[in-house]
Amino acid sequence: MDVKKVNLPCAVGKRTVYDMKGHVPFPDKSISRSYSAEELVELLSRLPAFAPKPVCKFTINGRTLFGKLEHKKESNLYIRHKFGKKVVQYDMKQLQAVDILKY
């Protein structure tokens, strides 16, 4: 196996220790992707129970609500408002947008 050492620091983001013969470097591209509201709710509901829940901005029936998504059952969302108060149930059909504010 032909391997030659490359003197690049780790912060450059390219291959750091070894450069294989005939290797094509990784393309520089953004990995961010925009999700729809339903996809984002599905991803947030799959967080493990011990993980901290992110603070989100929900738009439901034209109203803006701030809180954390506690869980989702079938077509119902359970959102905790005002951080420590009761969990409120909403219908998934009423959801218009979701934005993650702080994680």
Chain-wise SSE layout:
Layout: E1 3-5, E2 18-20, H1 37-45, E3 55-60, E4 63-73, E5 76-81, E6 87-91, E7 95-102
Antiparallel strand pairs: 1-2, 3-4, 3-7, 4-5, 5-6
Oligomeric form of this entry? Answer: single chain
Name the beta content range.
Answer: 35-45%
Task: Report the CATH C-level class of the domain at 37-102.
Answer: Mainly Beta
Largest sheet: 5 strands, antiparallel
How many individual β-strands? 7
Query: Judging from the principal axes of the Cα atoms, what is the shape?
Result: globular
Q: Which fold name fills CATH's third level, the topology of the domain at 37-102? A: SH3 type barrels
Report on this structure.
The protein is mostly beta strands. It has a domain at 37-102: Roll (SH3 type barrels), CATH 2.30.30.100. The chain has one helix and seven strands; from the N terminus they run E-E-H-E-E-E-E-E. The strands form two sheets. The protein has a five-stranded antiparallel sheet with strand order 6-5-4-3-7, with helices on one face. A two-stranded antiparallel sheet has the order 1-2. The longest helix is centred in the middle third of the chain and has 9 residues, at 37-45. The relative contact order is 0.17.
Compact summary:
By secondary structure, the chain is mostly beta strands. The protein has one helix at 37-45, and strands spanning 3-5, 18-20, 55-60, 63-73, 76-81, 87-91, 95-102.
Observed structural traits:
five-stranded antiparallel beta sheet, SH3 type barrels, mainly beta, 1 helix, globular, 41% strand, 103 residues
